[in-house]
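Re: [ENG-882] Designed sequences occasionally contain unexpected residues at chain ends

Forwarding the minimal case from QA. Structure tokens:
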């Protein structure tokens, strides 16, 4: 077997994600024939059929699905190598480099931007890649360099700092409550327009025991996006759950029945221990820790 080079695996992943040579070519900035040659060369080198060619596009075979996680690991490692190399070889004292940060939707949109603005003012040579995701990125595989997580990291090779608890509670806009009244019991709450999740996930399964008798059918506005929940509360659509600190920024939002629901999200900042000596990663980690501390404490 001839060992394929990285370009072939990169084209393989692009075709897997896009489902066609043309889509893969656009995403990679290559020509369609070039991507086609890459796929043929990879299949020949591996002795495997990776795609079924059809009018609907390129359909991945079982072999392609089996190889996908290994190719994704190569992609993550390659990206991490380039980020690490971006901060090397500079003779001046300015910190330079690319740092990939991952955080949830709400934290990425509502909390991190002012922290990153402060960081950029002091370290303009640092470029931030912000991966917005509610799933836990794999820091060991280097999908990201630094992660803001709502649970304690379990891997020993991660540098982790507990930031504190981000508090959640029921909120609504004042004019909504003026029209419909303020609920004080679960029974009263169930008669309101409630904003909640569409599909069950691991977090909502943990949350459900805290929600009294409320079920999925009780929600009049349903979405799996926390940003949609927040925007709906701000628009006066009804009552939903959001971060208490975010609601306190808007004088029109009122917290409802804290005795009914008071959720604390255990918040952590984590990165791989190998990045401790990387000046750019260290600077970003320090800035995020300070900024998140201020956010949680209300400073």
């Amino acid at each position: 077997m001839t060992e394929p080079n990285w370009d072939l695996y990169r084209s393989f992943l692009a075709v897997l994600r896009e489902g066609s040579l043309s889509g893969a070519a656009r995403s990679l900035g290559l020509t369609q024939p070039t991507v086609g040659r890459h796929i043929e060369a990879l299949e020949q080198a591996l002795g495997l059929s990776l795609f079924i060619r059809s009018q609907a596009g390129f359909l991945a075979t079982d072999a392609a699905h089996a190889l996908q996680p290994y190719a994704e690991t190569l992609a993550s490692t390659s990206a991490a190598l380039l980020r690490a190399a971006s901060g090397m070889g500079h003779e001046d004292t300015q910190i330079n480099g690319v740092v990939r940060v991952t955080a949830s939707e709400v934290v990425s949109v509502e909390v991190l931007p002012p922290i990153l603005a402060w960081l950029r003012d002091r370290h303009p040579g640092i470029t931030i890649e912000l991966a917005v995701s509610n799933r836990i990125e794999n820091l060991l595989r280097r999908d990201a360099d630094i992660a803001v997580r709502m649970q304690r990291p379990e891997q020993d090779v991660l540098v982790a700092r507990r930031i504190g608890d981000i508090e959640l509670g029921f909120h609504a806009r004042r004019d909504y409550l003026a029209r419909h009244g303020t609920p004080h019991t679960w029974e009263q709450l169930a008669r309101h327009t409630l904003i909640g999740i569409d599909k069950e996930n691991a977090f909502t399964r943990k949350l459900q025991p805290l929600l009294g008798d409320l079920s999925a059918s009780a929600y009049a506005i349903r979405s799996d996006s926390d940003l949609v929940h927040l925007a709906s509360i701000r628009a006066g659509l009804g009552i939903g759950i959001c971060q208490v600190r975010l609601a306190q920024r808007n004088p029109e939002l009122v917290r409802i029945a804290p005795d009914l629901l008071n959720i604390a999200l255990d918040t952590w900042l984590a990165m791989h221990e190998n990045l401790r000596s990387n000046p750019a990663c260290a600077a970003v980690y320090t800035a995020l820790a300070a900024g998140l501390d201020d956010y949680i404490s209300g400073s």
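QA comment: On inspection the terminal residues look reasonable. Residues 160 and 270 are 4 Å apart (CA to CA). Proposing we downgrade this to a documentation issue.
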